[in-house]
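Exercise 7b. Backbone tokens:
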């Protein structure tokens, strides 16, 4: 997050957001990366207050995310739903010295982040079940007519290699752009392409016993369904394993993940 956006976020804006959503506790700062995120209470419910700058997402994009998220929750996906304000709205726009912020409120997931030793075969199975259920539901989801569809994967800003790499990396930029151009020619259809979470790494789900609750749907977009599996495999294996046992963990992770996934849908 650039410094100008950080400077534009003031305590007054945070107070406005808390008042709009009727929170009943002092907000506790969690982090900022793409968004400012706070722990809050509303009555007796643990909640997450998120504030998104207009350079990252505009209100309609946030609303589109929430529409899909709550559709999943209404169909029994273990995820953290968005919550309405007393006005009935899920989003609240607040002008700032640079652009504006969109506030949104979510029910906090139960459980905690997994430590390196917490994840086991049962969790790998649950991850497959959750992702399989999400993608099966995505096949029948229609974005409401008044909201914009979420981006396709190639429209996300981090795919613009020239914006993130120095000119000295011209060969790398060329290779990335070549791969993107090739993948954009691949056949897409409801059986292999649709809305995905895209960021289901261990930092974005809580573990409670053998149960998993997924959250942080900020980066949802349209992509190949297999990308959600790739994100999980890559993040778990690089996060919790040493090179000497990575093959063993990878084999068990994939076996259990696809077993759970195939309970709800299938993929080539």
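Sequence design result:
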């Amino acid at each position: 997050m650039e410094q100008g956006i950080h400077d534009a976020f003031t305590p007054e804006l945070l107070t406005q957001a808390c008042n709009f959503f009727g929170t009943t506790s002092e907000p506790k700062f969690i982090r900022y990366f793409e968004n400012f995120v706070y722990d809050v209470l509303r009555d007796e419910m643990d909640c997450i207050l998120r504030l998104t700058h207009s350079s990252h997402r505009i209100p309609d994009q946030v609303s589109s995310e929430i529409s899909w998220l709550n559709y999943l929750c209404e169909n029994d996906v273990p995820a953290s739903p968005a919550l309405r304000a007393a006005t009935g709205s899920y989003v609240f726009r607040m002008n700032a010295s640079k652009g504006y912020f969109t506030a949104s409120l979510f029910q906090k997931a139960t459980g905690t982040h997994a430590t390196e030793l917490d994840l086991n075969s049962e969790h790998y199975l649950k991850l497959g079940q959750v992702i399989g259920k999400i993608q099966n539901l995505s096949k029948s989801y229609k974005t409401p007519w008044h909201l914009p569809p979420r981006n396709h994967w190639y429209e996300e800003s981090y795919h613009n290699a020239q914006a993130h790499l120095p000119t000295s990396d011209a060969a790398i930029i060329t290779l990335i752009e070549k791969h993107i151009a090739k993948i954009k020619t691949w056949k897409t259809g409801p059986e292999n392409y649709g809305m995905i979470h895209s960021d289901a790494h261990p930092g974005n789900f809580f573990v409670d016993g053998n149960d998993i609750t997924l959250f942080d749907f900020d980066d949802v977009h349209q992509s190949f369904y297999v990308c959600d599996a790739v994100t999980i495999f890559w993040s778990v294996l690089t996060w919790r394993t040493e090179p000497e046992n990575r093959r063993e963990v990878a084999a068990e992770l994939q076996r259990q993940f696809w077993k759970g996934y195939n309970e709800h849908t299938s993929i080539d």
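Instructor comment: Helices lie at 3-8, 11-21, 59-74, 121-138, 161-164, 170-183, 226-240, 246-261. DSSP finds eight helices and ten strands in the chain.
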